[in-house]
Design a protein that fits this description.
The protein has 396 residues and is an all-alpha fold. Helix 1 runs antiparallel to helix 2 and helix 1 packs parallel to helix 5. The longest helix is centred in the C-terminal third of the chain and has 41 residues. The protein is globular and about 75 Å long.
Amino acid sequence: MNLELPEQQDRAEWPVGTDSFFQPRRAAFWLLSALIVNGLFYTFNMFSVGFRVVPITALLGLLVWGIYTLVFLLVFRTLDLLEQHPPEAFFLAFAWGGLGAVYFAAPANIAIQSLCAKLVSPDFVAIWGPAIAGPITEEFLKLAGVVLLILVARNQFQTYLSVLIVGAMTGLGFQVVENLTYTVNASMHFPLENQVYPVLLNLLTRGLLSGLWSHAAYTTIASFGLAWFLLHPERPMAARIGCALLCFALAWAMHFIWNSPWLEDLFDGGYGEMAVLLVVKGIPAMIAAGLFWRVAARENGAYLHALAAYFVPERDLIRDDEWVRLGAPLSRYRVRIEMGWTFGLRARRLKTQLQREQLRLIRKAMTYGRGAQTLRHEVAIRRLRAMLDPLITTQP
């Protein structure tokens, strides 16, 4: 990936245009689609018993975990300033994690634990089985889906963040379907005749206390190595493979620690102690995922600046102060808040629309080049500017 400024690079060399995720001429598209559809039938059959036995839990669980998914999706879309992927990319990534990967992981985990029971002992599997089987199968399968998505739409992935977002969505899909499965199973074996408590309990433990450092975090870590491999073709192949394997090993280790019985003897079985244990075991994964995400966000900001310098050099479209904050979501948000406090809600609303149109202009120019496709965004920016400037040049 080349982040050189326009004076350092011929215009013909900049990649314009992106692949669609509908690629019927590519084998990866059909393989991904077939495995997702196969996983859909498997998951439907798996939940059919739960819907018959505990229908309230199943329906409420679908609603709760659906809202949970939308919250994470909103966060991912907010962090991806360039909106580098269309909605179908998020759908396919989530579907692979929740349907394709789950379909293969469930029997594979059982097979590995059965093998361990024969080679070691059933007692060993009861304690260490999830820590051994889960990371091996689940981390590999989730990352395999990210690879398939890259093979389907190859030039959709121009930055670290474009890979990490797909990886996080894949992990989220696995996490949500797994949580829904645990919710329904818990209700079927719940000691009380209540189909609502299991939903709330699993939302608290598996959603709120575990959600930030669960599968989405692990796949984010593993995907960073894949992104580095993909976007640094100039590096030696050994270094690229080594980085990918190192990140995968880190994700595996975080998952292993989470599933292991380590530290459990230090805490009793109370809800408060359980919450502390979950936080202590999960914080390392959250820190690692956060660091990788920060690196990706910085690189994404640099890429955004390079695109803007190349395609939108006019200062009336992107002023110097806006240029500085272009790739920093929090700085852009603070400007909107300060403008609202100082000049009123209308100024804040206009500033928000202006920032959104600037990003849309850059994204459209990146995909199609400057021309008819970007003209309406240029007109919208100048129109919003004409309405905003009188509000902020004179105090109300």
